Amino acid sequence: MVDDMLAFLTEACGAKAADETGDSQGFLRLTRENIKAIIMDIMFGGTETVASAIEWAMAELMKCPEEMKLVQQELADVVGMDRTVQESDLDRLPYLKCAIKETLRLHPPIPLLLHETAENSEVAGYFIPKQSRVMINVWAVGRDKSAWKDAESFKPGRFAPGGDGANIDLKGNFFELLPFGSGRRSCPGMQLGLYALELTVANLMHCFDWTLPDGMKPADLDMGDIFGLTAPRAVRLVAVPSLRLNCPVV
Ligand code: HEM
C-alpha cells in the first residue's frame, strides 16, 4: 500500500516538471507531506481503532459466557465445524453483528469527536456561536440511561429483531449510537473497519474456546478503560484458547 501511495509522488513530481513546461493537465498534484498524511490517516485511523474494538469484543464476550455461547452457536450452525469463517459468511451471522454493535456502543474506539460549528446554532436552549470548537462525547451517549435500557450491560440482543435497538444502524443516522461519527466528516473507513472487526472476532470465536487464566472468573475481569483520544482497556486482556474446530486453523 505504501508503494502504491509513493507512486503518486512520482506522478506529482512529473506534474511539477510538466507545469514548468506549461503542460499540467491530467496530473494529480500531491506533495510528500500530502502522501505522508494519507498514510498516517490510514495507519492510525485504521489500526488502533480496530485493534481496540477486537480486544473489547473479546473481553465483553468472556465476561458474559452466555452471550459467547450464542455467538458460537450461530457460527456452528451457519459455518459448520469443518472450516474457518470467510468474508461471504458475515451477512449470515446477525447475532455476531449485534455483539459487535453492542461492543462499539459501550466502547467506541474514538470516544470524543472534535468538530467546529459551521453556523450559529442552538442546542437544548444553549446558543453556540459559529466556529466554536465542540466535542461530542460518544462514549457517554452510548451509555445514556435515557436512550438505552440497562445502559451499562452488554446485551447484543437489544439489536436483534424484536429488541429495542433493532432498527439502529452504525451509519450515523441514530444519534444515540455514533462510533463512526455522523455526516460528512464521519469515518470513511467504516466498511473496512467493520469487515476487519467482524471477521477477526468471528474467527476467534469460531476457531477457539476461550477461558481466563489461573482459574479467574468472568466476574473478576477488569472492564476499566483509559479515557483519552482513544479508549483502550486499562488492563490488557489475557485469554487462553483451546481449539474448537475439527480442522486445522492455519
Ligand atoms: C472500528 C473501526 C473504526 C472506528 C470505530 C472509526 C471511527 C472513526 C471516527 C469516530 C471518526 C471521526 C468522525 C467524526 O469526527 O465525526 C473517524 C474518522 C476517520 N477514520 Fe475511522 N474508524 C475506524 C476504522 C477506520 C479505518 C479502517 C480507516 C481507514 C483505513 C479509517 C479512517 C478514518 C479517517 C481517514 C478519518 C478522518 C475523516 C475526516 O476527518 O473527514 N477509520 N473514524
Automatic annotation (TrEMBL):
One matching Pfam family: p450
Cofactor: heme
PROSITE patterns from the UniProt entry: CYTOCHROME_P450
Entry binding sites for heme: C187
Keywords: Heme, Iron, Metal-binding, Monooxygenase, Oxidoreductase
Lineage: Eukaryota, Viridiplantae, Streptophyta, Embryophyta, Tracheophyta
GO molecular function list: heme binding; iron ion binding; monooxygenase activity; oxidoreductase activity, acting on paired donors, with incorporation or reduction of molecular oxygen
Entry similarity comment: Belongs to the cytochrome P450 family.
Organism of origin: Rhynchospora pubera
Protein name: Cytochrome P450 family protein
InterPro entries: CYP450_84A, Cyt_P450, Cyt_P450_CS, Cyt_P450_E_grp-I, Cyt_P450_sf
